[in-house]
Amino acid sequence: MGASVIELENVAYSYGGTELFSNLSLSLPQGSFHFLTGPSGAGKTTLLKLCYGELHATRGEVRLFDKPAQQMDRDAVASVRRRIGVVHQDCQFLDHLTVTENVALPLKVAGRESEGEGDIGDLLAWVGLSRQSQQTPPQLSGGERQRAALARAVIMSPDVIIADEPTGNVDWDMSQRLLSLLIELNRMGKAVLIATHDLNLIRAAKSQVSSRVLRLKGGQIQQAGADL
Amino acid sequence: MIDRLRPVLALIKGDPQADRAVPPTGFTARLTVFTAGAMAFLAVFALALSFATGRVADRWAEELARTSTLRISAPEGQAAAQLATAITVLETTPGIAEARALTADEQRALLEPWFGPDLPIETLPIPQLIEIIEEGEGYDTTGLRARLQAEVPGAVLDDHTRWRAPLVDAAERLRALGWLVLLLIGAATAAMITLAAQSALSANAQVIRVMRLVGAKDTYIARAFVRRFTVRALIGAAMGVFAALALVLLMPDSEVAGGFLTGLRFRGVEWIWPLLVPLLAAIVAFAATRHAAFRTLREQS
């Protein structure tokens, strides 16, 4: 494993006067593969948002690529996000753009569109969406949307992939396919952090990749054992 | 210099992809074009009014300051003698270039607006008027009045000061009012475009969220909105100016009786001003949208 790309140290986060978690520490080294699990409402999505700078910790320190997130201005956060590919459960697309345009969006906003022109076709083929390239997101099925979101997350060749319930809306076969894609990215050296409550997905991954399972419960994070 | 112009050139050139990232919003687009058009239309007329009153003020100040009128009301048997004496006094007074008795036709023309044509002026006890045209620093009013009182008892000297000052003052105030109206139009345009931009930004909160998720900086997101509103304001203002100029051109240009309402057309270099209105509207829209965009993005972060 390499150096930590994302590090949380004694982090607390409060929302509306309620403390979701406190003294939470986490380190994601380069090339690691982590699952984050826990009951609904435990704060998995919030923890992920802290990891890509959308939220700021109430206490403690979040370090993104060795820089304190609290000290970053909005432009610096935007720069960091170009190194973190995010896949949401609800995907979050621009519905008036085509799949190709949505996947290319990170390149466009970074002013690197010329670099990735050839890659977009390859990437869509990799996630099996060549045929749907000119469709708009509302025309896609749940699994196709998740694969498009994954393609968009990796178009910038980020160092970290963060996925929030990426298999929440898809069937088992599609879950396996998405998992395979994430494992393939991990083998390319990307750190992967997946929030999921699908224990079958975690078990399936354990046979293919060396991964750690973190359980978020009662405001604390624990390393899960083999008793999944 | 080129570095300073680069953002402006980038704005004009645009980024089709950044523009496409924000879906078109019909309502705010129409509102911006209409507002800019209506305000530009009003701005052209405010400009025309300001220039016209300015011309009137200048003319009154210039023409009336260089002339005076001597009125002789004498008994019938003494009128000719007093007129001759008055002319002699005036011609020998330093600072007077010319003293000329108005003819009966000229006096009739002066009364025509009130009594109509064919007034039998010869049968009426109308005072004789003498037009005095000054030269150099003008004459000594007090000294001339004293001489006339002694030599021409029926003469009354009117150097126009009494009624010229309030007229010029009124025209100057109208001119200032025109510029104030222009400022208010600019402020109202900025306010309306700010509201429209804020509405568009709020309506596109999800678009902004997605763009931020993929690493878009505020400048990139704001640019799509700023360019869109600037171009809309430019187009709307150009349409408003075109319509206003068409109406201004249809207005008669003659200055009958010196009234400024018939002289609203622009003169010479004044034509440049209405042509600058769309550019100014675009600058106002650029500043207003940019301010609104960055404030909204800061609030949404």
Distance between the termini of chain A: 24 Å
Provide the CATH superfamily of the largest domain in chain A: P-loop containing nucleotide triphosphate hydrolases
**Approximate helicity band of chain A:** 25-40%
| Terminal residue distance of chain B | 34 Å
> What fraction strand of chain B?
5-15%
Spatial strand order of the main sheet of chain B: 2-3-1-4
Major pleated sheet of chain A: 6 strands, mixed
Strand content of chain A: 25-35%
Order of helices and strands of chain B: HHHEHEHEHEHHHH
Sequence stretches where pLDDT stays below 50 over 5 or more residues of chain A: none
Characterise the protein shown here.
The complex is a heterodimer of chains A (228) and B (301). By secondary structure, chain A is an alpha/beta fold. Chain A has 2 domains: 1-83 and 158-228, P-loop containing nucleotide triphosphate hydrolases (Rossmann fold), CATH 3.40.50; 95-156. Chain A is built from 7 helices and 10 strands. In chain A, helix 3 (99-109) runs parallel beside helix 5 (142-154). The longest helix of chain A is centred in the last third of the chain and has 16 residues, at 172-187. Chain A is globular and about 45 Å long. Chain B has 301 residues and is an alpha+beta fold. Chain B has 2 domains: 2-61 and 165-300, no CATH class; 74-153, no CATH class. Chain B has a 4-stranded antiparallel sheet with strand order 2-3-1-4. In chain B, helix 3 runs antiparallel to helix 7, helix 3 (26-65) packs across helix 10 and helix 4 (79-91) packs antiparallel against helix 6. The longest helix of chain B has 43 residues, at 161-203. Chain B is rod-shaped. Classes of the chains: A alpha/beta (228), B alpha+beta (301).
